[in-house]
Write a structure and sequence with these properties.
Elements lengths: L1 E5 L6 H13 L4 E5 L7 H4 L1 H6 L4 E7 L6 H14 L4 E5 L4 H7 L6 H15 L5 E4 L4 E5 L10 E5 L3 H10 L2 E5 L6 H14 L8 E8 L5 H10 L9 H18 L1 H9 L10 H11 E2 L6 H14 L3 E6 L3 H16 L1
Parallel strand pairs: 1-2, 1-11, 2-3, 3-4, 4-7, 7-8, 8-9, 9-10, 9-11
Antiparallel strand pairs: 5-6
Helix pairs in contact: 1-14, 4-6, 6-7, 7-8, 10-12, 13-14
GO molecular function, one term: oxidoreductase activity, acting on paired donors, with incorporation or reduction of molecular oxygen
Protein name: Luciferase-like domain-containing protein
Keywords: Oxidoreductase
């Protein structure tokens, strides 16, 4: 299983370069820079690392064709790919809640928009003359003749069946978000259905799951951090939580999502009005948390993910990223490589 690192949004380029060098030395497969409103541009934040790294892939996550036209996404992606010698990756998504809140955008026909964006990006990366007439996007006479490096990898951010099947048809891989182990057969089955329908070999496709990493030397600090960040775990949708909470508690969590957001905004681990057994179950099933003694259990959990068909894990690090990368590099990467 390939281990990947997802950095917090907005880190300065020199910090990204330092953390990236550390991650590469530990054998991390990909370092992802996050795109988030009001934060530093992730493509530019990776530029310094692109010139000063050799093996590790460099990715931007997520970019949506609703916020940036596919032509501009292509220009930025191919420029990053040139800077790092053909090691760029990109995750295309259907537009996250954070961007929707800031911009007021309300995406429609998400699967079609993401599919067309991926088709444009993959064709453009070959340097071919692109005449694209889609339902939502059009390009006439676009050609990046200077894009001569190995093409970048283009992932789709997906959890729902339609987006997963589409990803299997057209993308290089899929990154799911916070999907618990019991849901793996369902989500991987949908992606494989798309692969089969397009006559593609699953061996050439990357199955990735994003998961929150909170492991620290101090267990209390780890759990407090995990609790504060719970609001983002699968946006606490019933589909994510019902396998371990059951229907009633999952409905309760969805109905009280605002309590989790308040805890995040107030930077507190106290989630008002939510029974403790629910909070503990969410932390246990949707995060990797605890002190260093918990790592053996995390490794077994990840091996179960791998046995289910997952071949990549993207770990979102929080707080002191240097310490987190060292723990992941020293304890996880050797066990999973």
């Amino acid at each position: 299983m390939k281990v990947q690192i997802f950095l917090e949004a907005g880190l300065p380029a020199d910090t990204v370069a330092e953390l990236g060098s550390l991650a590469e030395n530990f054998g991390v497969d990909t370092l992802w820079a996050s795109s988030f409103p009001g934060h530093r541009d992730p493509f530019l934040s990776l530029a310094m690392l692109a010139r000063n790294s050799q093996r590790m892939r460099l990715g931007v996550v997520p970019i949506s064709p609703f916020e940036v036209h596919p032509m501009r996404i292509s220009d930025a992606l191919l420029t990053l790919n040139e800077l790092c010698g053909g090691r760029a990756s990109l995750l295309v998504g259907g537009l996250g809640k954070s961007v929707m809140r800031v911009t007021g955008l309300e995406p429609t026909r998400r699967v079609t928009a993401v599919r067309e964006c991926v088709e444009i990006l993959k064709t453009a990366a070959r340097g071919d003359l692109l005449e694209y007439a889609g339902e939502m996007y059009r390009l006439a006479g676009y050609q990046a003749t200077w894009a001569t490096d190995a093409p970048p990898l283009v992932y789709v951010g997906a959890t729902g069946p339609a987006m997963l099947k589409m990803a299997g048809r057209v993308a290089d891989g899929v990154m799911m978000s916070d999907v618990p182990l019991p849901r793996m057969p369902e989500v991987l089955g949908n992606a494989r259905q798309g692969l089969k329908g397009a006559g593609r070999d699953a061996k050439d496709f990357r199955f990735n799951n994003f998961f929150a990493w909170h492991i620290k030397s101090d267990k209390q600090e780890s759990i407090a951090e995990a609790r504060r960040e719970l609001v983002w775990r699968g946006i606490l949708q019933k589909w994510h939580t019902s396998p371990f909470l059951g229907d009633s508690d999952s409905d309760f969590v969805e109905a009280n999502w605002g309590a989790f957001m308040q805890a995040f905004l107030q930077r507190t681990s106290v989630i008002e009005g939510i029974p403790e057994h629910i909070v503990e179950a969410l932390v246990a099933n949707l995060t990797f948390s605890g002190d260093l003694k918990a790592i053996d259990g995390v490794i077994e959990h990840l091996k179960s993910f791998e046995a289910a068909g997952l071949d990549e894990i993207t770990l979102k690090v929080h707080g002191d990223a240097d310490k987190a990368i060292r723990i992941i590099g020293e304890r996880l990467v050797p066990e999973l490589s």
